[in-house]
Design brief:
The protein is an all-alpha fold. The protein has one domain (3-91, 100-194): Rna Polymerase Sigma Factor, Chain: A (Orthogonal Bundle), CATH 1.10.1740. It is 66% helix and 0% strand. α7 (125-135) packs across α9 (152-175).
């Protein structure tokens, strides 16, 4: 059964269809939050799927269900930081490190991967989101644009500038003696290794 039919059945009162969608995209949504919050990922995942159910009647099928779900996750993340700071949070110009300085210990990775995740956390969130959707979820520019309701040109600009800033942050790590040689010039290989590991353990 395809995603759209599952979403339609779930919104029509079929909990089994919702469970199938949850199982299908649990890891995808977890990956989205994994390097952006220090704790409470499971709660944010639940909020995302609940908002998906509540908004199912507004889904018009112009994009894939996965992209629509990640767009909801992006809004949940924005609301999460807004609630913490009790004020609207502009993702443009602010990084996760600005909003939540302590690095989460939930990611038990090799030092080089930790260095790269730390560098990502110091890139403005609007660029971090685009980079992670591109590398972790293997989404194209048009898919990211549809997911985040952005012009494709904006996505291309954020991806280009995000990669530049990421290289700068990795350079900062190298200057501090962090082992980043393996990951600095091979984001594709890094993302393939990392995407399966940057997840909280399910109970």
């Amino acid at each position: 059964m395809d995603d759209r039919e599952l979403l339609t059945r779930w919104s029509g009162g079929d909990p089994g269809a919702g469970e199938q969608l949850f199982e299908r995209y649990f890891e995808t949504v977890c990956r989205f939050f994994a390097n952006k919050v220090a704790s409470g990922i499971e709660d944010l995942v639940q909020q995302t799927f609940l908002a998906c159910l509540e908004g199912a009647s507004r889904f018009r099928g112009e994009s894939a269900v996965r992209g629509w779900l990640l767009g909801i996750a992006n809004n949940v993340l924005r609301n999460h930081y807004t609630a913490q700071r009790r004020a609207p949070v502009p993702f443009e110009g602010l990084s996760v490190e600005d909003l939540a300085p302590s690095v989460s210990r939930m990611l038990h990775l090799a030092e080089s991967h930790e260095a790269l995740l730390g560098a990502l956390r110091r890139v403005p969130i609007d660029m971090q989101v685009v980079l992670e959707l591109y590398f972790w979820e293997d989404m194209s520019g048009p898919e990211i644009a549809a997911t985040l309701s952005l012009p494709e040109g904006t996505v291309r600009s954020r991806l280009r500038r995000g990669r530049e800033l990421l290289a700068e942050r990795l350079g900062d790590h190298a200057a501090a003696g962090a082992p980043v040689r393996e990951t600095r010039d091979d984001l594709e290989r890094w993302s393939a290794e990392l995407r399966a590991r940057a997840l909280p353990v399910r109970a």
